[in-house]
Write a structure and sequence with these properties.
138 residues, alpha+beta, Nuclear Transport Factor 2, Chain: A
């Protein structure tokens, strides 16, 4: 094979590789852009906090920007099912906040390996409580 033919093969291969890289880069760019767009349309923002020693639920809620009265309302409405005064340090707690307003909409907490609790604000006067007990895997 002469040098001109070899040169054409190298140029063709380089062109193919560049095209593939360009397509991959474009796909990655548009994939990220669409994912950002979808996340911005989601109504709730999830904030996960690990519970530090000696902190109350209200203090923890305040640390993620939840108003004290909203936290107090959640505590009052959920107390018949779960008392947030018993949260344990070192465990994660999940706060779901309304994206536009930052209002607390839902709290989820694994009490232990067998029991989980969540409370979701459905309307101004109603909070939906879920207390589920799961059997540990044997």
């Amino acid at each position: 094979m002469d040098s001109e033919t070899m040169w054409r093969i190298h140029v063709r291969n380089a062109t193919v590789v560049c095209c593939i890289w360009g397509i991959a880069a474009a796909a990655a760019f548009f994939s990220l852009r669409s994912r950002e767009h979808v996340q911005s349309l989601e109504p709730l923002r999830l904030v996960v906090k690990r519970i530090p020693d000696g902190i109350t639920f209200s203090q923890l809620a305040s640390s993620v920007g939840i108003a004290t009265d909203s936290a107090a309302e959640f505590i009052t409405q959920t107390k018949p099912v779960y008392d947030f005064a018993t949260i344990k340090s070192g465990k994660p707690i999940l706060f779901y906040l309304d994206r536009p307003t930052g209002e607390l909409k839902k709290v989820a907490y694994d009490i232990n390996t067998e029991t989980a609790f969540s409370a979701e604000k459905v309307s101004e006067s109603e909070v939906r409580l879920r207390y589920r007990i799961e059997k540990p895997a044997s």
